[in-house]
Amino acid sequence: MIAQNEVSVAFSGDIPKNYETYLGPLFFEPFAKVISSRIQQLRPASVLEVACGTGRVTKHLSEVLPKGVSIYATDINPAMVAYAQGTIGTTERIRWDVVDAVSLPYGNQQFDSIVSQFGVMFYSDRPKAYAEAMRVLKPGGVFVFITWDRLQNNPAAQLTDDTLRYFFPINTPAFYQIPFSYWNEHQIRMDLSEAGFAKISMEMLSLTGHADTAEMAAKGLLEGTPVFTAIKDRDEALLGPMQRALADDLTDMFGATNLKVPLQARLVIAVKNA
Predict the structure, then answer these.
(1) pLDDT tens sequence across 158-191
(2) Which class in CATH covers the domain with range 4-149+175-207+263-271?
(3) pTM (2 decimals)?
(4) Domain coordinates of the chain in residue numbers?
């Protein structure tokens, strides 16, 4: 099994671009709108974003929050931060930092809200990271994050994992097992409670992702994550056949063009006592 912290720093080369271009609308845009709206409703004066990736949520936050709100956008992966900063730019309200969630370089009680979209699954030590979130939140501050539901409830990801297992029955690239492994509500509550969060609520989100073509979706699913590196390390010649096979499977399930892909993830809101 690949270590979570190893996967987190494996987004390099062309992966950030493919991640944003192809996986962005397929997996992340629908949830980015929801989580940004939830943060907007909290009316924070300062927001810390952890695991900002290519900045999709950051961009939405900068659009929906008043100009006076400061946004700290962070990720453990320098390539992702560089891509996001290059795309969105640096402004007076957005600060970009390369940061590990388990060791936040910020002061106690500094932020009104913390947001993380599909980042907590990759934390090397979730209770420790949650304790850090608790530390930097102001009293009454809110930690909002989204984590994927089970792999089988996200069919495009399941098809991709099946394709990897078919082409590599031995030493199968394990990436898709990680982001879809942190779905158990009891475990999430336990981890947050261990960090000191007492008021915790959860909501299952069933949304729809989009792709212009099955080929574009397959490219994102295989070249927009560290799976791309794993395939090249094992047998780069198989990448083309894998993409064609996955595109065929996606076409069978969702059509060849204008794909509408069901997605399911859990929205978690944890409040620090005032």
Answers:
(1) 999 999 999 999 999 999 999 999 999 999 999 9
(2) alpha beta
(3) 0.93
(4) 4-149+175-207+263-271
